[in-house]
Specification:
With about 80 residues, this protein is α+β, with helices and mostly antiparallel strands. About 15% of the residues lie in helices and about 20% in strands.
Length: about 80
């Protein structure tokens, strides 16, 4: 599964309403990815979530319409 760093639009709509049920993963303080999936819901510990989000430690799966970087293949 390809992951990317989460952005605000992953968890809130244009009116700042929370999107319940969003799948996400957390990166711990050592930089290792936690393999346990989490779902954003009304029971999410929001203080801890915001702290991880602000430091770029919340990741979501890459969606079909996400922009991606194209890498050119070099031949030898």
């Amino acid at each position: 599964m390809n992951l990317r760093v989460a952005i605000k639009e992953d968890f809130a709509d244009e009116y700042d309403n929370k999107k319940i049920g969003v799948l996400y993963f957390q990166q711990n303080h050592d930089g290792n990815m936690c393999t346990q999936p989490f779902y954003f819901n009304e029971n999410t510990e929001i203080h801890n979530f915001r702290q991880l989000y602000s430091t770029g430690q919340i990741f979501v799966p890459v969606r079909i319409f996400d922009t991606v970087d194209i890498l050119e293949e070099t031949t030898n």
